Amino acid sequence: MIRVILPQHLRTLARVDGEVSLEVQELPTQRTVLDALEASYPVLRGTIRDHGTAKRRDFIRFFACGQDITLDPVDDPLPNEVAAGAEPFRVVAAMAGG
Description:
The protein has one domain (2-93): Roll (Ubiquitin-like (UB roll)), CATH 3.10.20.30. The protein is 22% helix and 19% strand. The protein contains three helices and five strands; from the N terminus they run βαβαββαβ. Strands 2-1-5-3-4 form a five-stranded mixed sheet, with helices on one face.
C-alpha cells in the first residue's frame, strides 16, 4: 500500500481528506504511483501530468523520504520506505513569484 499526500487544492478536487492509500501492483515508481492515483481518482487526470505527454506539470514537485525526487527518472524505484508504506509519496504544489 502506497501512501500519497496531495496538496489541498487536489484533495478538494478529488474529495478526499488527508492522505490517500493506493494499491500499486507493479514496482512502485513515480509513473506507477501516478497511474494508480489517476485510475483511483479520474478527476485528477491532467492536473499532475499533461494528458497527452504524461509529463509532470510545471509547479508540481514530488518528494519521498524528505528528498525532492521530481527530476529523477520516472521509472526509478521509489525508496523502500515509500514502497512499504512507512513514508508517504508527497505531491507538492510549488510556488513561484517575482
